[in-house]
Amino acid sequence: MNIERLVSMANQIGTFFATDPDADAASIGIAQHLASCWAPSMRQALLDHLDDRNGEGLVPIVGKALRDHRERLAGRRGHP
Amino acid sequence: MSMHSHHDRGTPARVSSRQVTLSIDGMTVTVPAGTSVMHAAAEAGVDIPRLCATEQLEAFGSCRLCVVEVKGRRGYPASCTTLVEEGMQVATQSDALFRLRRGVMELYISDHPLDCLTCAANGNCELQDMAGRVGLREVRFADGANHLTEAADTSNPYFAYDPAKCIVCSRCVRACSDIQGSFALTTTERGFDTRIAAAGGDDFLASECVSCGACVAVCPTAALMEKSVIELGQPRRSVTTTCAYCGVGCALDAELQGDRVIRMVPNPAGGANRGHACVKGRFAWGYATHADRITTPMIRSSIHEPWQAVSWEAAINHAAAEFRRLQEKYGAESVGSITSSRCTNEETYLVQKLTRAAFGVNNVDTCARVCHSPTGYGLKQTLGESAGTQDFDSVMQADVVLVIGANPTDGHPVFGSRLKQRLRQGAKLIVVDPRAIDLVDTPHVRASQHLKLRPGTNVALVNALAHVIVDENLLDEAFVAARCEAEPFAKWRAFIADPRHSPEATAAVTGVAATELRAAARLYATAGNGAIYYGLGVTEHSQGSTMVMGIANLAMATGNIGRPGVGVNPLRGQNNVQGSCDMGSFPHELPGYRHVSDEATRKQFEAAWGVPLSGEPGLRIPNMFDAAIGGSFKGLYVQGEDIAQSDPNTRHVTAAMEALECLVVQDLFLNETAKFAHVFLPGASFLEKDGTFTNAERRISRVRKVMPPLAGHADWEVTQMLANALGYPMHYADPAEIMAEIARLTPSFHGVSYARLEELGSIQWPCNEAHPSGTPTLHETEFVRGKGRFMLTEFVATDERVNRRFPLLLTTGRILSQYNVGAQTRRTANTVWHPEDLLELHPVDAEDRGIRDGDRVGVASRAGETVLRAKISERMQPGVVYTTFHWPGSGANVVTTENSDWATNCPEYKVTAVQVSRVEQVSAWQQQYARFSAEQAALLKDRSGTKAADAPV
Ligand code: SF4
Ligand code: SF4
Ligand code: SF4
Ligand code: FES
Hints:
The complex is a heterodimer of chains A (80) and B (953). Chain A has five helices and no strands. Chain A is an all-alpha fold and 80 residues long. Chain A has one domain. The longest helix of chain A has 15 residues, at 3-17. The model of chain A has no long low-confidence stretch (mean pLDDT 90). Chain B is an alpha/beta fold and 953 residues long. In chain B, 30% of the residues lie in helices and 16% in strands. In chain B, the strands form ten sheets. An eight-stranded mixed beta sheet of chain B has the order 15-14-25-26-27-12-13-37. In chain B, helix 13 crosses helix 17 (514-526). Chain B is globular and about 90 Å long. The A-B interface holds A 1-2, 5, 8-9, 12-13, 15-16, 18-21, 33, 35-42, 75, 78-80 and B 331, 333-334, 362-363, 491, 495, 542, 546, 587-588, 595, 597, 616-619, 623, 626-627, 629-633, 792-794, 796, 799, 898, 900, 902-905. The structure holds iron/sulfur cluster (3 copies) and FE2/S2 (inorganic) cluster.
């Protein structure tokens, strides 16, 4: 799946939660949103992007959420 | 006059805490104070003759046929305009009354053609009935001046006006003003020369008339008559069903001869419409039997090959084998489905069940993705339930109505009429819209405020409204303290109080002056019951979900929630979009909005369905497209949706369609999506099946079959066959059984059954042990999630910004006579009102570009370019252009981009940066579209193989 698009969608989510003055709460919010609304393959593609290309293009708060909650967000590889 | 007019009690029912007892022809009757003598008599079983009165309208007292005698009073008062009084003694029969009524009738008939035998209303005419009732035998003034030779007005495609048959009862005039609110009819002259005329034009078609049919429904004679009745004769039987167009969900009576529809009339008992309808539901049903209907299943191996007509069995087996092949080759997740917001709840439920249980994946989505998915998300986060909070009746108790990003008089016409009724009674109106929609200034209605914001700045605006409410101490502190979570509220209060949200600060972004915005906020917060109604102008933005939360915050902050007259009311687009969401059409939610990861719920469904279910969300529609282009998504089952026309960035969508190895489309017509399909399964229209639809008020109403399915099967049967062919058994005998399963598995539907619907007419969910008759108003004593939760709603400008290359903002919408992608309405006479999609632009922008009204203009965005004709309009603000998307060749969605709501991926249809210029010919996309459509039409025409009739399953 087109990684630029996933990155920009993730950044939009990050921007919404970034308003929360509590950084940990924001990180949990992002992770929860991704876990509950994104197919595992999309989450995994984002994690792979974090590992392979150091999350290029991701806003820091999303990178933090992905790292903080990697376990929860990991999905199967390959699809789609 | 419809078939149910025979139960008309003459004047509207009244509600009062005080009861009045009187005697009518010696019978004692007790009715609420304020009731007319005529209505009270009807309650006592006495039907007083009448011509100008009908239960649908306030009494007018012009015909004097309904005279009665009241003991102790002189003269003969009209019973329709005389109100009951305690102890009143009324006589409806006497020699004097008999003579009076006969005299009145004689005058009427003397100016009426006596061609009853050949009249379209014969057998169903109130004038004829009354002549019989009053014993009219001779007419003495027959040779005097009359209107018998006046010409009929047949300009409206659906009804005709024959002035020769008009008795000038003015029911039509009153229906148009009081019910519809269009004021399109007037009475001209006085006395003998009094006539009815359409205002603002030479004839009905050219007038202000919006063809709602209210006048036709109340006309007691054949003066205003449906052309279908004139042509085919009076209907013989009637079946109550639900309109298959918009989310108002009007109850309609299909009046029939055998199984042929003669006309559709609004049902006065309809909970959503209270006896009213619009041009779509009332008249635009001819598509159901249009010659373009495809009634034979078809298959082909590539989209450039001719179709092959095959038996149902062959088509279903082929589709099933293809899906299984794809899953084996590319993995289980390589397939998915799209459910339809135009199909019934039962059908939608089966498609998501097939996807989850037979495909074994959660890749199921619905067109709500592209319209109200942010409503589902935003309201669930704040209030705890993904649905509007009120019934439509509630608007009659509102004191101030805030309409945001919705155009009810076009998109939800029957609600629009209801709203106008309340506004004429004095409720205040605030409109938030980039365009001057009709409501802003329409006969006898004028908005107190029109906040004409720039597209894409909703959240800044709603934050400014909230800021004023906090800043000026207009909060309902007691409500917030009792009903909402304290900590999120404290956070929100601090957030919203920041000066960056003040109207003075946001004016530069929104384009709305601070004084106007402050006035609107004060009005909403202080005028009494404040009700918010919103539409796709709220949801279809990159911050759609944020805006929905902002709206919920506003309602909670002012205590405008949890009782009649207030609330947060999404006006849902398609007839069953609420239902399709309720039924578990989202990839992350099982029926009843329960997340797939919720173990307890999943276990329950696993036990009922006999298969393990995935606890991870599936792909949404745009994710499916991206995955198809990426090569991992290969098979799609689409029931009753036209994603190739309705979804944004058409070229991206069609690239995805072309990347699929198996696209199965189930539809009435070879729609734009079906042009890319490999299997076509004929669909059934709403007239051909049983089921239920759920409207924007959560109202579940029955859809009843009035004719057998043209292709032999209702849509639920087809899904069932496909499931069986996939090896997953489904054996429902009828939709009632499907509803029984839905009710068993969904707490908010526990009390719903076809038997209960029969009893109550319609039911607003939740309907369960706690609410056995349904729930008109949500969140009455506590929010569905317990306490309401305020959310932080920072404004984030969309990435879609104007620049030198694309200096204008395009926003899209819809109009009254056409519906969505137009597949249905384009196949009716509604095209006389909207033969093509136009580009509306402000005179200044037009002048800058040398564009004149009617010129061909190119509209280009970073996604694509299309060509439309220009319509220059003061409704627009400079810098903003507007179009509709009802005609596929217009290519409005070639221009829209893949930008979407952060939370739900609902596309940002409402904001696209474009440039507009005069051009000489259609765009490259349009040329290519025309070629492709011609190719597909030829491939359809050349179809080979068996006919459905010879190939039963
Ligand atoms: S057209 Fe019909 S409803 Fe209107 S005034 Fe004439 S008879 Fe009455
Ligand atoms: S059809 Fe509706 S809008 Fe037109 S004249 Fe009749 S009542 Fe008025
Ligand atoms: S389209 Fe909507 S308003 Fe019109 S009749 Fe149908 S449900 Fe009612
Ligand atoms: S029905 Fe009462 S005056 Fe016409």
